[in-house]
Amino acid sequence: KEFLVEISGTTVTITCPLTEGSIVWELTGIKADSNERKYVIEHHDSSPANVSCSSGDKKYEMYLNARVCTNCEELDALAVAGIITADLFITFGVLILVYYFSKDRKGRASASAGSRPRGQKMQRPPPVPNPDYEPIRKGQREVYAGLESRGF
């Protein structure tokens, strides 16, 4: 047989497995006033305690390490599942919105400094020099010496 422990706020209710006789409760070495099957601890401070209940020659012991709080809200499994599901839907909704809004910007060229234009990936070779407009190099002036200015 086992103890039944119920926690609500800062109140801890313990039910002894013994059913018959006068039940004596002992909480961390101190005998309690209650002789009933249920023992109620009001304003429990979450400190661990050794709890025992006895009747005649039968004695049951338990180590109580119950965490309690004053402003706690009890949630059932359905509420927790609903909260998690709603959070996932909101997260996926934001991801889809970001995806569709960023998809439109992929075709535009960025104007940030240091970025190169997105034209052709290969550089074009330099244009073929026109022989009529070659620069005059040192030592080659005689090539152009025979040219005379034309009159218009």
TrEMBL record:
* A GO CC term attached to the entry: external side of plasma membrane
Molecular-function GO term, any one: transmembrane signaling receptor activity
| Intracellular or extracellular location(s) | Cell membrane
Q: Answer whether the UniProt record assigns the keyword Zinc to this protein.
A: no
Q: How does it sit in the membrane?
A: Single-pass type I membrane protein
BP term (GO), one: cell surface receptor signaling pathway
Species annotation: Fulmarus glacialis (Northern fulmar)
In its UniProt entry, what is this protein called? Answer: T-cell surface glycoprotein CD3 epsilon chain
What PANTHER family does the annotation carry? T-CELL SURFACE GLYCOPROTEIN CD3 EPSILON CHAIN, T-CELL SURFACE GLYCOPROTEIN CD3 GAMMA CHAIN / DELTA CHAIN
Q: Which Gene3D superfamilies match?
A: Immunoglobulins (2.60.40.10)
